[in-house]
Structure formats: structure tokens, C-alpha cells
Amino acid sequence: MKLTEMKVNEFISVLASDAPAPGGGSASALAGAMGVGLSKMVAALTLGKPKYAEYEEKVQQIFDRADKLTKELVNGIDRDTEAFDGVSAVFAMPKSTDEEKAARKEAMQKALKEATLVPYSIMELCLESLTVVEMGLGCTNTNAASDLGVASLNLKSAVQGAWLNVLINLGGIRDEAFVNEYCTKGEEILQKALPLADKIYNEILKSL
Predict the structure, then answer these.
(1) Engineered SS bond to 26: which of 22, 62, 100, 154, CB 3.0-4.6 Å?
(2) Is 21's pLDDT higher than 90?
(3) Residues in CB range of 121: below 8 A, 6 or more apart
């Protein structure tokens, strides 16, 4: 069964068990999905309200983009665990001969790269999601303002959590160009995402 097909209590139960996956990467994707999902909810609570009629087009854009991003981050929950399973599968490969050892090392490098790319993609989605949440400031239902603040907190946690999963996989990769590329790209996302999340949270805080 896919993680995303589980009931909430079932997912939390397996997350809290001694099973190595799902872990922090899937949890980060879930946090991101909850964050941008909240921005979709706020948009839904704004659309069609006469008080916000002048913002209808903008709020519709928020709703549509948030809908797409929510689905992509939900998919990330299973994608991250599948990538981890790919790494775990390498440990079952034979290593009796030099050829087998070489094949095993090559497979591990490939699996670690995939396990890096998945949380990196989650970071990208979280940054885009934060820009969508920011769009909602000052033009969405004020009765749901706190939900935009919670959205920013979830997405901040998600992007930082995904970054930790990028780093732990990069640590085992021997391709220096790949490592340098994704270290640089990941840090660039953090430099944009974290201040943006804080900005949204603080603006919401001041408005309450």
C-alpha cells in the first residue's frame, strides 16, 4: 500500500515504528503538502466573496497553483520512501567477486543520486509554494489569516527537512561535481525560502 493511501493514524504509526522508511524525507513532503494545502484552503474561503471581489483573479491563481503544488508534494511522500528503498536494495546485492563489488558500488552511487534528487525536488516545490502563500497576503479572507501563517511554518520545516535529506545522501556520493552542484543549488533555495517563510509568518503575526 502506498503511504498516501494510508489513514492518518496508520501513517503516523509506521512513521513512529522501527521501520527505517518512511522517514524524514517523506515527513518533509507531507509538511510541505499541508503548508501549500492550507493556502489553497484560504483561497477557497476567499473566492466568490464580495468583500474580496477585486482580488478574484489573483486568488484564483493562488487556488490553481496551490492545487497543483499540493498534488506534487503529496506524490513526494511516496517518492522519497521509494528512493530510500532503492538505496536499501543495493545492500542485498552480491559482493563475492571484484565484478560484483564494482557493480554494487555503481548501483549504490546511482541510488544515492536518486535519493538526493527527490528531496531536492521537494525543496524546489516548497520554495514555489512559499511564493504562492506570499501572494495571499493582503488579498485573502482575513478570518483565515492564521492559516497562512501556519502554511509558512509547515513549508519552512519542509524545506529544511528536505535539505537535511539532501545532505545525508550527498555524503556518500563520490561524484564531486554532482555534490558541489546540489550543495550550491540547495543553499540557494534555503537563502530564498527561509527569509520568505519568516516574512510571511511575521506579517501574519502583526495582523492578528
Answers:
(1) 22
(2) no
(3) 76, 79
